[in-house]
Design brief:
By secondary structure, the protein is an alpha/beta fold. The protein has a single domain, classed as TIM Barrel (Alpha-Beta Barrel), CATH 3.20.20.70. The protein has 5 helices and 9 strands. A 9-stranded mixed sheet has the order 3-1-2-4-5-6-7-8-9. The structure holds iron/sulfur cluster. The site of iron/sulfur cluster (SF4) has 10 residues, from loops.
C-alpha cells in the first residue's frame, strides 16, 4: 500500500511533551483545513506516492532515533496511515500522530500517541472540529491549543472545562510565533493556576521558517 508523502526528514521535535527530542518526521500530503497561521501550505498538494515498506525502511536508516512523528497536512486523510503507524510500532518506535481534530480519530495500536489540535477561533477553523473525538482520546494522548490571542486563551479555558479535559489527557498551550508572546501566556496561566503545559513552537525558534529540518 502507498501513501502520498510530502517529505521525510529528521529534526528536533518542536511541540508536544516530546519537544526537544531528536525525531524522524513523515509529513503526509493533503489537508482538509486552511488555518490562518499554517506554515506547511506546501504539503496541501505536493508529494509522491511511496510504498509503506519503503517509508519504514527510510526511517530505519536513521538508526539511533527512536521517535517518529507522522504529521501533515492532515495524516488521517489517508486510510493507510494506520498501517504505517502499526508497522512503525512493530519496529519498536515511539510514534506520534499529529492531527488537526477535524477528522474522526482512527483506532490506533496500543501505545501510539495522538497529538490532537483543538482549533481555536483565530485559526479560522474551529467550526471544523469533530468534538466526538474528545471521547476517543486515551490517557497517553495529548491535546494542543495553538493560541493567537487572549480571546483564544479564554476560549481554550472554556473547552477544558466544558469537556472535562483536566486529568484526562496531557494538555498543551502553544503560542503562535509572531502573534502572541510566550511570556504573556505564561502570566495568564500562572494567574489562573491553570494545569496546562506551555509550549513554544521550538522548531521555529531553532530553524525559523526553514523547511525539512
Ligand atoms: S491543519 Fe495543519 S496543515 Fe492543515 S491548514 Fe491547519 S496548520 Fe496547516
Amino acid at each position: 500500500m502507498k501513501l502520498k508523502v510530502n517529505e521525510t526528514f529528521r529534526s528536533i521535535q518542536g511541540e508536544s511533551t516530546y519537544a526537544g527530542l531528536p525525531c524522524c518526521f513523515v509529513r503526509l500530503s493533503g489537508c482538509n483545513l486552511r488555518c490562518s497561521y499554517c506554515d506547511t501550505m506546501y504539503a496541501y498538494e505536493e508529494g509522491k506516492y511511496i510504498d509503506i515498506d519503503s517509508i519504514c525502511e527510510s526511517i530505519s536508516g536513521d538508526s539511533g532515533i527512536d521517535l517518529v512523528c507522522v504529521t501533515g497536512g492532515e495524516p488521517l486523510m489517508q486510510t493507510g496511515t494506520t498501517i504505517l503507524v502499526s508497522q512503525l510500532m512493530k519496529m519498536g518506535y515511539t510514534v506520534l500522530i499529529e492531527t488537526n481534530g477535524s477528522i474522526k480519530l482512527h483506532c490506533l495500536p496500543g501505545k501510539a500517541i495522538y497529538v490532537m489540535d483543538v482549533k481555536c477561533p483565530d485559526s479560522g477553523m474551529s467550526h471544523h472540529m469533530d468534538w466526538d473525538n474528545i471521547s476517543l482520546l486515551r490517557p497517553q494522548d495529548e491535546v494542543k491549543f495553538v493560541l493567537s490571542s487572549r480571546s483564544d486563551y479564554e476560549w481554550a479555558k472554556c473547552v477544558l472545562e466544558d469537556y472535562h479535559l483536566f486529568g484526562k489527557v496531557k494538555l498543551l498551550f502553544s503560542c503562535t510565533k509572531g502573534r502572541i508572546e510566550p511570556g504573556t501566556v505564561a502570566k495568564w496561566i500562572l494567574e489562573d493556576r491553570l494545569k496546562v503545559r506551555l509550549q513554544i513552537q521550538l522548531h521555529k525558534y531553532i530553524f525559523d521558517e526553514e523547511r525539512g529540518v
